[in-house]
Write a structure and sequence with these properties.
- This protein has one domain.
- The chain has 308 residues and is mainly α.
Length: 308
């Protein structure tokens, strides 16, 4: 019989495989079949509706004093995050996007220092510096003209990662106070409100009659997989493993994206992704990974010393 801890690791593996594949699946829809902003509308509203159905089985009220924080979390963690994620991915390479996203732990440490006054050790500062150099170089490589990378698209993905890092810091007290489904329903509600005026027009001009069966399958995957399903799997996994274990799985995403891009480039003649895998991008990936490793290991030592 499989233990709950093994199931948790399988869940986390599934989460990051889904995320890693999403870079290529979503990229295949945008912008020829659907505009990025229209996809953002469907993703937020679709997943939000599914979370709302779950919320019907959980009766929990929130304090009025938490409304402002929930609204800010919805703005940063849902509206800004999704808007710049999809619009960035529509402009740049799936590989670039997947690598930049792994810098989220670096941003989170910096933001936590300013907002939560968490200490910055020399090891953390070194990790931030190394990872930051990798992220900046990768963004710049988007302007090299190789593959589908884009400077503007990489900047958008960078903003997406930064917004989500702010969200992780701001949502932490809410997650300790309320059930996860309660928090996510409210953040998606506010995210929908903030997103609506910027995305609804693009949705209205989408020609869904031109969608083929594979397009509909891809759309369902993007709406359900990387948002609703992955969040449920994450909630299950966090019952049996530590958050640090969960976050470490983020390194799988660029690896999965690179493998899928490599396979696509190999099997598809004249693939647009042939120039996306370069030595320079792999080195940037290594710099970011090294930076996050230094930050993570330093954080674990600090927590251990604090307990002792």
């Amino acid at each position: 019989m499989v233990s709950n801890k093994v199931k948790a690791h399988l869940a986390l593996l599934s989460v990051n495989i889904i995320y890693g594949a999403n870079y290529l699946v979503a990229k295949g829809l945008m912008p020829n079949k659907i505009e990025a902003s229209a996809l953002v509308f469907l993703r937020i509203s679709g997943a939000g509706l599914l979370f709302l159905i779950l919320k019907l089985f959980i009766k929990e009220k929130i304090d009025r004093k938490d409304i402002t924080r929930l609204a800010l979390c919805g703005f940063l963690g849902v509206a800004v995050n999704q808007f710049f994620s999809m619009n960035g991915l529509s402009l740049t390479s799936p590989v670039d996007a997947a690598i930049i996203i792994t810098a989220i732990p670096i941003f989170t440490v910096v933001i936590s220092y300013f907002l939560l006054r968490e200490p910055l050790t020399s090891r953390r500062i070194l990790g931030i510096s190394i990872g930051g150099i990798g992220a900046i170089l990768l963004i710049y490589l988007g302007n090299s003209g190789l593959g589908t990378g884009s400077l503007l698209g990489n900047i958008f993905v960078f903003i997406n990662a930064l917004a989500f890092a702010f969200y992780l810091v701001l949502v932490k007290p809410l997650m300790l106070k309320y059930k996860p489904v309660t928090v996510i329903v409210w953040t998606f509600l506010f995210g929908f409100i903030f997103m609506f005026p910027f995305c609804v027009e693009k949705l209205m001009y989408t020609d869904f009659t031109a969608f083929t069966v594979p397009n509909w399958v891809s759309l369902c995957y993007v709406v359900i997989g990387p948002t609703f399903l992955t969040y449920l799997l994450n909630m299950f996994a966090l019952q049996f493993v530590k958050p640090t274990v969960s976050s470490s799985y983020i390194y799988l995403q660029p690896a999965i994206a690179m493998i899928l891009v490599a396979l696509t480039s190999y099997w598809v003649v004249n693939s647009q992704y042939k120039g996306d895998l370069t030595i320079g991008k792999l080195l940037c990936c290594l710099l970011i990974f090294s930076g996050v490793y230094l930050i993570s290991s330093g954080s674990l030592k600090w927590l251990k010393n604090k307990r002792d």
